[in-house]
Design brief:
- By secondary structure, the protein is mainly β.
- It has one domain.
- Helix content is 12%, strand content 31%.
- The chain is built from one helix and five strands; from the N terminus they run βββββα.
- The strands form two sheets. It has a three-stranded antiparallel sheet, with no helix packed on it. The chain has a two-stranded antiparallel ribbon with strand order 4-5.
- The structure holds zinc ion.
- Zinc ion binds at residues 17, 19-20, 22, 57-58, 60-61.
Amino acid sequence: MRQYQLKETKEIKKIICNKCGKEIPAVDGEPREGVFSVDYQWGYFSEKDGERHSFDLCEACYDELLKSFCIPAEIKE
Ligand SMILES: [Zn+2]
């Protein structure tokens, strides 16, 4: 005799860039293109104490963001 337990799983189907709306498909829960994902909890000394901010950017929007920096991001190989 076998007894089964129903398991609910959640896996990413697609990621939508918060900046441009581009849809990035995912296969087996893995996005097929580079995605910059942020999940940040603001702390006590910020104006947003206790807020948690999450968003995703496609690679093109990430590149645009980096281009807007006056001091370039540190990039290591
Ligand atoms: Zn984008």
